[in-house]
């Protein structure tokens, strides 16, 4: 996960791609939940879970790559968790849909912690326009760049691209 500015507004962003990019996922729904522990003054303790709103959370089909974004504004629970304390928290990202080839259900999730969020970077570009004979345009997807990030406000020379950890 990364935090970067989009038109001057901070966003938490992540991205994924289907394993088989040409076949994709129908009715892809992505959700992010924030989980953090709490203790009340009455002595109750537990885990607080909250659905985090995304800019877009449902797509009719995902065939190449999808980047999800959460606006870190004043109402953002993620922003509050990042600013208000140094306590760890979990972000659970889930993906559901149907495999575009077999129509079998697709479900996946990944868990992130505070230490997994990288600030002031953006994702490296994965897509490249390739022109063949007759000036025919194809799109090449660099799947090896899925987790690569570059510092904000820079171009993408090869020596600037590094893996998110």
Low-confidence stretches: 156-165
Structural class: mainly beta
Total number of β-strand segments? 14
Please tally the helical runs, counting DSSP H or I stretches of 4 or more residues: 1
- Helicity range: under 10%
The run of helices and strands is EEEEEEHEEEEEEEE
Q: Oligomeric status of the shown chains?
A: single chain
**Main beta sheet: strand number and arrangement?**
5 strands, antiparallel
Average pLDDT rating: 84
How far apart are the termini? 9 Å
Bulk shape: globular
Radius of gyration: 18 Å
* Percentage of residues in DSSP E strands: over 45%
Spell out the blueprint of helices and strands:
Elements: E1 2-6, E2 9-16, E3 25-39, E4 45-52, E5 58-62, E6 66-71, H1 77-84, E7 90-99, E8 105-113, E9 118-119, E10 121-123, E11 127-131, E12 137-141, E13 148-151, E14 162-163
Parallel strand pairs: 1-9
Antiparallel strand pairs: 1-2, 2-6, 3-4, 3-5, 3-7, 7-8, 10-13, 11-12, 13-14
Report on this structure.
- With 165 residues, this protein is mainly beta.
- 5% of the residues lie in helices and 53% in strands.
- It is globular, with a radius of gyration of 18 Å.
- The model is unreliable at 156-165 (pLDDT under 50).
């Amino acid at each position: 996960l990364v935090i970067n500015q989009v038109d001057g507004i901070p966003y938490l962003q992540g991205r994924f791609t289907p394993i088989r990019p040409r076949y994709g996922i129908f009715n892809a729904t992505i959700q992010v939940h924030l989980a953090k522990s709490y203790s009340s003054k009455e002595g109750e303790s537990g885990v607080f879970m909250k659905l985090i709103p995304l800019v877009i959370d449902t797509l009719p089909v995902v065939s190449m790559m999808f980047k999800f974004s959460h606006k870190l504004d004043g109402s953002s629970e993620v922003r509050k968790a990042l600013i208000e304390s140094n306590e760890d928290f979990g972000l659970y990202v889930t993906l559901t849909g149907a495999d575009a080839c077999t129509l079998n259900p697709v479900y996946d999730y990944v868990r992130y912690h505070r230490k997994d969020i990288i600030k002031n970077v953006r994702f490296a570009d994965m897509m490249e326009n390739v022109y063949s004979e007759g000036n025919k345009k194809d799109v090449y997807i660099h799947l090896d760049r899925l987790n690569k990030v570059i510092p904000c406000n820079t171009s993408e020379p090869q020596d600037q691209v590094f893996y998110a950890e």
